Amino acid sequence: MQEPLAFRMRPQKIEEIIGQKHLIGEGNVLRKCLAAKRIFSMIFYGPPGTGKTTLAMVLANELELPYRLFNAVTGNKKELEQIFAEARLYPGLILIVDEVHRLNKDKQDLLLPHVENGNITLIGATTSNPLHAINPAIRSRCHLFEVKALSQTDIEEALCKALQSPKGLNNEITIEEDALHIISRHSNGDIRYALNILEICAIASDGCISKALVEQFSQIPNMSMDSDGDGYYDVLSGFQKSIRGSDVDAALYYLGIMIEANDMDSIERRLLVTAYEDIGLGNPAAVARCVQAIDAAKRVGFPEGRIPLAMAIIDLCLSPKSKSAESAIDAAMSVLRHTSYKVPDYLRFTPVNMKEEDQYDYNRSDIWNQIQYLPDALKNTQFYHPQMNSSYEKVLAQNLEKLRKVKRTSNLAALKKKR
Questions:
Q1: Domain boundary at 127, 146, 165, which?
Q2: Which of the chain's ends, N or C, has fewer CB atoms near its CB within 10 Å?
Q3: CATH number of the CATH domain containing 355
Q4: pLDDT band at 367 (very low <50, low <70, confident <90, very high)
Q5: Residue 230 pLDDT exceeds 70
């Protein structure tokens, strides 16, 4: 049985790779590595079907180094251990890890020492943003390179090569120009998707692939990224910014792209981040409803899951916005980056050598809001500043104003004398 067209057309040499000139063009980083016969651990990130794994394999071939493929999802520890054993026999072995962001802790623990001591060179491939998805221990040992979505011109070049190549369709099939444009446009930068559509159309054609035939097999564009080919991360960014900017229609549009890509993980993470970061205390009930909507969507799956997600997005878009919680914790953490202060003695879990009258009293709720809880050096520091965009946070602000008028003290003995 013949391999799929996308597999047969996989490049073997650096000159055969289409696109990615920022990495492999003359004078650019990976081209220089090949010229110097040097390689280092790296992670390729970018949308599906852009050739991340292929690029890794081509680098290994060009450097005449042995390599092994490992899938982080389906591969097991035994396979990894076998690869590491081979690396002792074959110096310079390259380990190409597909979906590297899915490596669990056990596999990471096995992998890291071998990467660190140079026993293997790791080349990871991921469709996720490595700054969020890749374990920092792995990320710090690798250089990060973005593999970009191909342009429509790049896709059309790949399709024409596949039509002409003896490995491909060997000039046995022709294609109408309009049909070629439709495939390249609908692929949205995913060369694998484009070749798959070309192959099925070739099988169904009578020798010429027409516009009408292509439209039958590509009625829904590939939505793994946005239509201008800038990348899936731009969709995520546009999604969050649309909610933040209260543009409900734009947010629903970007949600639709992610639903078509069947990317529940990215939807879940981005929605939760947006809800807590941008809506926050402006409407905490909407934040809670968002969590419930995500849970419901995951339970029922797509396509029905689109409904609770749409409800959540409309709710978040039209809610008052407040970043006060994020600003407050960031302000507190910025203090910690400069220095740390000792917890007051009377707040410690086990106070040592303190008189009873100076100790925290668990039975005196009447004085709790008069005690100084911050270290002396930070006394009266205010990290939280309410944003008056919603009735909910206005109530919090009123309560805060009353509390901040109370003079807090570290003299617990004096406080306890009050009744």
A1: 146
A2: N
A3: 1.10.3710
A4: confident
A5: no
